[in-house]
């Protein structure tokens, strides 16, 4: 439309109508006010760039509801935006041959906020602004084509229909807030349900004091909140978990980096990948981190609110996990004390090393429930370990050849743990291959700061032992070392009590005890009592020191002349007694004669001895040790009477 065409333009003031209220209805009508309404009172100029879709929807709905005869009479109006941009063509501007440019007319209505009209050829064009309720802000314009002689009643009808379009827009506009409110209500209900779910889960988690139950609740909570996520829990090696979705946290260079980072930092870590994203959350309590929850999302990335709920569950699970762990540790301490008490009670009931080793092996097998338990004793003279007790029946005679990796223990005096022999190389592992062992814990048995042996517990299952088992074995080994030290001291004291310090032979009470035991387990036996001839004269001539040396020389000859099972003891003074189990007096006489000759030949100064022999056999109903000694002593007296340096057998033994 050109400037030469605008002289035909005239402004139509609707207020000149016979019904002024109807004329001003479109621009002056106020909306119904509600003080408690949640919908904003009206649109502002800041809303104009964002309401185009509502204007279009209202226009489409408005055209749908206009009666057909009205459309036929007035035609379809064109719709323009608040800035004069055509939004929908009318029936008139679809005819290209008319050539009418409505831009000036639309801008005039936007500027004035009133209905405007202009004439073009034989047609009149009317632009009706669509204004807001309160501020009369133009947000759309309708443009009609009318006849040049159109009437005010037609203008009122046009503005009335425009008013319907305004009301339709506000319905769409208000529906936006209603939909938002409904979405907010649904979201609030959804969040409330999730909060209730999270609270129930947290409460359930805190009710459990078992590690497995806490981990199961974590998995259940993640499944409810994030059903599309794949969850895995990584825990430290200290735990023995049966859940297949719970894995061991291993700090290896090729292991999951995000899991290690979350465990070390104790924070939430994420990593985006081509096939989704990973999120790791640390299971931590007041004392530290105990594991990591890793979530894998293949497609949908979780919303921050979902992660917040998961983080709440993880935080609660971390605290519950710590409580469960502390509860386990308390029970473990109680059980550990019970094990220590049982072991010490059992091994302290005896002072014999062999019994201590056997009892300790049985207790260790019961405590650790392992397939294999072995005790090796270290012999300083042989400079190697020897098998003294085990809980398996296989005979491993060559075990000393297959334990070369234990030889470092006497040097460092430290225990060790092998989680998996297939992954760790600890010297030569022939020992593992022989016994099919994958897991091993071992500790030295130390008594008085000296290595006395090694206790070894093993199993064919890898990672069978926990670090707590390892620490428990160390404590049990300490108590076993004390028991071994006590038994060793007892053996040493007993050895000192049973031995004569001068001659190295047994003492008289030990000989009495052995003869009494032999009489209950053997059929016969002989006793020789040897006396050094003229021993008082030797002491008077050479002195008591020489007398002691003579006794030592005689004792060495006797010790080298008897069998391993024979018992030689210092009877008293210069008298020495020898007991021969399962030996008749005639055979004992031969041994006594050999001893007599050797003493006379090998002593310096040369001396002689006299001997008396007594015997007991099955024909004796019962002969006491004292009676047997009395017979031998009487035979010795007869030998002395016969001129010394001779041997005499008691009459009842002949």
Automatic annotation (TrEMBL):
CDD domains: GGDEF. One of its GO terms (biological process) is negative regulation of bacterial-type flagellum-dependent cell motility. This is Diguanylate cyclase (GGDEF) domain-containing protein. SMART domains: GAF (SM00065), GGDEF (SM00267). It comes from Paenibacillus aquistagni. It holds the Pfam family GGDEF. PROSITE patterns: GGDEF. PANTHER family: DIGUANYLATE CYCLASE DGCM-RELATED (PTHR45138:SF9), REGULATORY COMPONENTS OF SENSORY TRANSDUCTION SYSTEM (PTHR45138). GO terms for molecular function: diguanylate cyclase activity.
